[in-house]
Design goal:
four-stranded parallel β-sheet; alpha/beta; nine-stranded mixed β-sheet; Rossmann fold
Length: about 700
């Protein structure tokens, strides 16, 4: 019998239709690989030239000028087409080259198309040019681990997500030894140019490598990548040079698709609040785009919170002739109250469900939390420096860490000059939950940053929300609104007069379509007391069953489902926008290399406009560098871009908040963004954030 079964399975596996059904490939994949992104008009010329653009200028950091002297005066360069340049230029442009490329940091959809664009452009100019891909990120450069990228390899990954072709890694080339090893690798491979595809830290690496290898004639070009969308470049006058890094649109659409499904589920099952934390440690660009894509009931933008001013507290302080510094900047407790207010208002119209979107790094914008993070970062960095050891190894459990902080607090009482951690800090820190203390004391990442993704931000907030909702319920302030028609039907079916009981039970019986039980009725006991007081029943009588049913229906049950959106969006196949964007970035990279540029970042101007208006450019990386605290000391890094609270996109979201909260008896205003595709007329051609900012 087993032989027959084996024979049957083997024949089944040989069936062409079975093989097609279980193949790694599918029709969508085949179609994706065949898609040919359009080229910007300038790349249709046989040659391209670079022209310095003087109208874009930057405020240059003194330290950047000191450390990057050979690339700090680079200009923004515009790429222009040229079909018949001088012969000497043609010979230089057409020469055989050896180019290395590396992915650095987390994956972002579209990276493979950067390689495809670079490969196609380079091979078209000279078929003997070689492209090497460094494996597993910057470690591949340091350790000389590379593969030659062939046409077959490129074709297998066209328009596909991930960084699977050559993988990625998070190593920083941030020491003399690493720089020397990187230079050695580039020389050993005979590289003419090195391309670094990454975020702010990776492009920082690109700047220092460009400076290090300029005398060796090895060019270094950066490419802006991060799904967080926090690489956006403006000049000193606010003119936009790079509106968004690649991968952002795809990640936002991927998150939005899933969150939109939760909106549908929430409004179908009508019993859950879905709490959606989306990636974005430093900036809230993804949360903003998700709000526009889904119209979730509540979306919080971290950058707005730090601008918050509590006018009521300021007025109270003024009456007492003091300054309340805590009135500036949103507190954790106040934020939980804002969330509760939305939940309570929706419940009042029968909607005890909804969707809340919060950025991963929202706690970084909360005043008291930021103070803790800064102080703890300083304490940990100083400990490691002083003891030449590791804080987290010496104090492996939470109680050990807390005891160390207590000793510091005692020291502050004895030594008034010691202020980094005082008794007040210690008291406030001990008031927060254990798991949050653990989170705030967690090990910093490789860049010295607090790891917000390791902290259950949503648990911190929802714990406070749940506690306050219980308080509101006990005070009669959190109730489920009962539809008046439903109330009447239940009462009549039970043989009771709804018009008689209505004013006894509800505070708004004559006013609204959704009825709210009186605040004084907070339990079955107080319900019976109210009925007796109004002589609706006697002390000996039980509460009528229809009345008890209506009351129980008014009692809210706050149920949550927690979701985190990050890694799934990073690995998504790119949108058409990101396919086109990254392919043209690859073409831009080659143009910069062929024209001898170094220390430049490949970029596309006018991303917020129609594709026909896109302008490939090179942006100097050096002038973008700023001093920033890393691991307790100042280092030059590429500055991150936060959400502009004066932008059109943010202010439109702000203006529509009340509508999207939908704390009214009518339907919700959820939006269905649809699936990610790269064909079809209905596919959007750019992020909504960019569209609105362009219109604004």
């Amino acid at each position: 019998m087993k032989d027959k079964d084996t024979d049957y399975i083997e024949r089944l596996l040989e069936n062409p239709k079975v093989q097609e059904a279980v193949s790694n490939s599918n029709r969508e994949l085949v179609e994706r690989r065949r898609y040919e992104p359009p080229k910007s008009q300038v790349f249709k010329s046989r040659y391209t030239l670079l022209k310095d653009v003087d109208r874009f200028t930057f405020n240059i950091d003194k330290e950047a000028k000191k450390q990057l002297p050979d690339i700090i005066n680079n200009k923004v360069q515009s790429i222009v087409g040229a079909d018949s340049p001088e012969e000497s230029f043609q010979n230089s442009y057409d020469k055989k080259r050896c180019i290395g490329i590396v992915f650095s940091g987390g994956p972002a959809p579209g990276g493979h198309n950067v390689i495809a664009g670079l490969y196609d452009a380079a091979k078209k100019v000279n078929s003997e040019t070689k492209i090497y891909g460094f494996l597993l990120g910057p470690d591949g450069i340091i350790e000389n681990e590379a593969i030659e990228i062939t046409g077959q390899v490129v074709d297998a990954y066209r328009n596909l997500g991930g960084f699977t072709m050559i993988k990625t890694g998070r190593t920083k080339i941030d020491s003399k030894k690493k720089l020397a090893l990187s230079k050695e690798t580039c020389k050993a491979l005979g590289l003419d140019a090195l391309v670094i595809v990454g975020g702010d830290d990776s492009n920082t690496n690109a700047a220092f490598l460009a400076q290090e290898m300029i005398e060796d004639g090895i060019q270094v070009i950066g490419v802006p990548k991060t799904i967080d969308g926090d690489i956006q470049v403006r000049d000193r006058n606010g003119q936009i040079l790079c509106a968004m890094s690649f991968g952002f649109h795809t990640a936002a659409r991927a998150f939005s698709g899933s969150i939109s499904n939760l909106c549908t589920d929430s409004s179908s099952d009508v019993k859950y609040w879905h709490i959606c934390k989306v990636m974005g440690r430093v900036a809230s660009h993804l949360a903003l785009e998700v709000a526009l894509q889904t119209h979730a009931n509540m979306t919080f933008i971290g950058e707005e919170l730090c601008d918050y001013v509590d006018e009521k507290r300021i007025e109270e302080a003024a009456r007492d002739h003091v300054v309340d510094f805590n009135a500036y900047g949103m507190t954790l407790r106040h934020l939980s109250r804002v969330i509760c207010d939305g939940i309570v208002r929706r419940a009042a119209v029968g909607k005890n469900y909804g969707v809340i979107v919060i950025p991963e790094g929202i706690l970084e914008f909360i005043n008291e939390i930021q103070v803790f993070i800064i102080k703890l970062n300083t304490i940990i960095a100083e400990y490691n420096k002083t003891h030449d050891t590791d804080f987290h190894s010496d104090f492996p459990v939470l109680e050990d860490k807390l005891e160390y902080l207590r000793r510091m607090a005692r020291r502050s009482r004895e030594d008034k000059s010691f202020s980094v951690w005082n008794t007040r800090d210690d008291d406030l820190f001990n008031e927060i939950p254990d798991f949050f203390q653990e989170g705030l004391l967690t090990e910093r990442d490789s860049h010295g940053n607090f790891q917000f993704s390791q902290v259950k931000t949503e648990q911190v907030l929802m714990g406070l929300v749940n506690d306050y909702l219980n308080m509101l319920h006990e005070g009669g302030g959190y109730r489920i609104g009962i539809e008046k028609s439903y109330y009447r039907k239940v009462m009549k079916k039970g043989g009771l007069d709804p018009a008689y009981f209505g004013p006894i039970l509800f505070e708004n019986y004559e006013k609204d379509s959704y009825l709210l039980v009186k605040p004084s009725i907070i339990s079955i006991k107080t319900l019976k007391q109210t009925l007796e007081k109004e002589q609706a029943i006697t002390e000996a009588q039980e509460i009528p069953e229809p009345v008890a049913k209506i009351y129980k229906k008014s009692v809210p049950k706050f149920k949550t489902q927690i979701h985190f959106y990050g890694y799934d969006g990073r690995g998504n196949d790119p949108t058409r926008f990101d396919c086109n964007y990254t392919y043209n970035l690859g073409l831009t990279v080659f143009s910069l290399i062929a024209n001898g540029a170094t220390g430049q970042m490949a970029a596309i101007r006018n991303l917020e406009q129609d594709f026909s208006k896109w302008e490939p450019i090179g942006i100097p990386i050096g002038p973008l560098m700023r001093l920033e605290e890393r691991k307790g000391k100042l280092e030059l890094v590429l500055e991150k871009s936060l959400v502009d609270v004066n932008s059109a996109s943010f202010n439109i979201v702000k203006a529509l908040r009340e509508k999207w909260l939908a704390a009214v008896s009518s339907d919700d205003n959820y939006r269905r963004p649809g699936p990610i595709r790269f064909t079809g007329e209905s596919e959007e051609d750019r992020p909504i954030t960019l569209l609105l900012n362009a219109l604004g």
